[in-house]
Amino acid sequence: MHDALQTLKSIEKSSALLMERYDALKESHKVLQQELNLTKSKLIAQEQELEECQNKFQSLKHANTLLGSDNDKRDTKLKINTLIREIDTCIAQLSQ
Fold first, then answer.
1. Cβ-Cβ contacts under 8 Å for 31 (sequence gap 6 or more)
2. Distances from the Cα of 43 to the Cα of 31, 35, 40, 58, angstroms
3. Could you list the residue range(s) of the whole structural domain that residue 44 is in?
4. How far is it, in rounded angstroms, from Cα 44 to Cα 47?
5. What was the pLDDT predicted at 40?
């Protein structure tokens, strides 16, 4: 009878220790999940910023091409206006 009582106490002690470890791991998992979500959000923001910079770079490339061209002023103004509309569209899409 005494051995059974000791075995039961040992099982209870082990169960309590396992529950403590489980709770600690559960909390650790929660913290890691929050960090992961934050990292994902930062990555999305950086990807959007990169895309915006790439769009601006392309616009600048186009503007530089236009500045160096021999086309008449009217055609150049029309091309610039087209580029401005494209940039406005991109900005509107990024703002959504």
1. none
2. 18, 12, 5, 22
3. 2-95
4. 5
5. 96
Q: How much is the pLDDT for 43? A: 95
Q: Is the pTM of this model over 0.70?
A: no
Please enumerate, as own/partner, the contacts of 54-63 that have beta carbons within 8 Å and a separation of 24 or more.
55/87, 55/90, 56/87, 59/83, 59/86, 59/87
Q: For helices 2-67 and 73-95, give the axis angle rounded to 10 degrees.
A: 170
CA distance 55 to 84: 11
For residue 59, the tally of other CB atoms under 10 A from its CB is 16
Q: What one-character-per-residue DSSP string does 42-71 give? A: HHHHHHHHHHHHHHHHHHHHHHHHHHT--S
How far, rounded to the nearest angstrom, does the alpha carbon of residue 15 sit from its chain's CA centroid?
Answer: 40
Q: How many domains does the chain have?
A: 1
